[in-house]
Design brief:
The protein is mainly alpha-helical and about 100 residues long. Helix content is about 85%, strand content about 0%.
Length: about 100
């Protein structure tokens, strides 16, 4: 009865807990995804990596192909652990691409 008076309807506490859990997990995944991004940028700066050194057009096509491949694979496996691993791989790749700007 006390829960009904505070929130206006029964079961609101469970909904609020579920929302807070989803939000907490989202922030943890965001924080975790920064690790491979920084590592990818560090690897790229250390090695002088660039897709665009030889032919910018071929490098751009290669970049877009890999990026969209990650997009589709992450979407396909979004409800499994493979999706999380693919997301971390994607953030590593984006960190690697960011290394040219940092360097």
């Amino acid at each position: 009865m006390n829960e009904t008076l505070q929130t206006g309807y029964l079961g609101a506490g469970a909904v609020s807990e579920q929302r807070n859990r989803v939000l907490r997990n989202t922030y943890w995944l965001l924080a975790l995804s920064l690790v491979p991004t920084v590592f990818g940028a560090w690897v790229g700066v250390s090695t002088g990596f660039s897709f665009f050194a030889g032919s910018p057009f071929i490098g751009f096509l290669l970049f877009m192909g890999i990026a969209f491949g990650f997009f589709f694979a992450i979407e396909k496996f979004k409800n499994s652990g493979i999706g999380v691993a693919l997301l971390l791989g994607f953030t590593f790749f984006m960190g690697l691409m960011l290394s040219r700007l940092i360097g």
